[in-house]
Amino acid sequence: MQAGSTLVILLALLGANLPFVNQRLFGVIALKRAVKPLWLRLAEMVVAYFVAGALGYLVESSIGNVFSQGWEFYAVTASLFVVFAFPGFVYRYLWRHRPAAVV
After folding, report:
1. Using one digit for the tens of pLDDT, what is the confidence trace for 6-45?
2. CB proximity list for 80: less than 8 A, separation 6 or greater
3. Residue 4 to residue 46: CA distance in whole angstroms
4. CA angle 74, 3, 9 (to 5 degrees)
5. What is the model's pTM?
6. pLDDT at site 4
7. Cα 92 to Cα 85: distance, rounded to the nearest angstrom
8. Which helix (H) or strand (E) covers residue 88, if one does?
9. Under a CB-based contact definition with an 8 Å cutoff, are residues 13 and 82 in contact?
């Protein structure tokens, strides 16, 4: 159970940051645009949230009964997913990227 929980948390952390650290759709599909727009990055985050949630559901169902969850559970996990995405957001939009020095 410990390994399954850790896997879900690491997948959520990776899935929350993946849209911000690359220019490909879901990290795989090349886009025609040079820069991926913010709305597409947020859409990728929503998909990653549901993928992480489905994996968490599978882990929970493999160890026993699945507990029903109310709206509070989903509000907290969505908020946690946004917090997980903060490092990627800072890297993409707030960090000053300097061009490489030409030697």
Report:
1. 888 999 999 999 988 888 888 787 778 878 888 998 999 9
2. 12
3. 21
4. 35
5. 0.81
6. 81
7. 11
8. helix 86-89
9. no
| Residue 87 vs residue 102, higher pLDDT | 87
Nearest Cα to 48, choosing from 23, 84, 3?
84
Residue 46's CB is within 10 A of a number of other CB atoms, namely 12
Angle between helices 2-21 and 38-63 (to 10 degrees): 170
SS3 97: coil
**pLDDT one-digit tens code per residue, 80-97:** 999 999 999 898 888 877
User: How many Å apart are CA 53 and CA 46, to the nearest integer?
Assistant: 11
